[in-house]
Amino acid sequence: MVRDLAGSRRFYRELFGWEFTAGPQQLGPYVRAVVHGHEVAGLGETPVGRDFPAAWMPYLSSDDADTTADRIRQCGGTVAVGPLEFGDAGRLVVAADPGGATFGVWQGDGHSERRPLEAAAAGTPVWFELVTRTTTGPAAFYPSVFGYGTTSAPAPDEGGRLTLLLEDRPVATVRGTDGTRPSAHGPHWKTCFAVDDTEIAAQRAVDLGGRLVREPHRTPYGVRATVSDPEGAEFSVLQTDRAG
After folding, report:
1. Interior CA angle at 150 toward 146 and 156, to 5°?
2. Bridge partner residues of 129 (DSSP)
3. Quick check: 76 pLDDT over 90?
């Protein structure tokens, strides 16, 4: 959700090469971002009179949004919006886990392509990371609601790392902060978009009016940098390791 939809479209088109198509208008002006014919993200305009901070929010796939909403409540989460019908496009839920991290749920038409990490095209969401005080709660919540498998590992000076698995494939990380507050906004999800060159993409974001939040650095999944768009929404760009 952004205040200047036209400006945000220009920023992400120049950064990722996104094309845009009209999306469901139930919540106001909204467009879908498209890469090689595949819908990869959505941008909506904040309603007049509301002052939501701009932020990227991941949507987790569900075969049945109503059942998933019930599970979220049963496992201690909160359902804030939905399930809502979006015509033939699908059904939507906006929720928060027990720690307060916000995420969406999307029940689509069943034809969305699931790309392996190493095969992700530039401009597509390629990795997601939940930053929270401890991995203990998420380790129970997300597998119970969505059926993820998990692997865990200690992280120096942090509250551990938990990897969420879909059919034995890593799809997201939960990173604990050893009990300290993750940020001014509390627990939150981060989104990484694939790029061909992290340094070039990070500099391009700055040139387009964004801000460099964290310099390019090596991660287990590739070279990553964190930037923000002109409205302050933070996201990461990730040059994945395709070999091996």
Report:
1. 130
2. 173, 190
3. yes
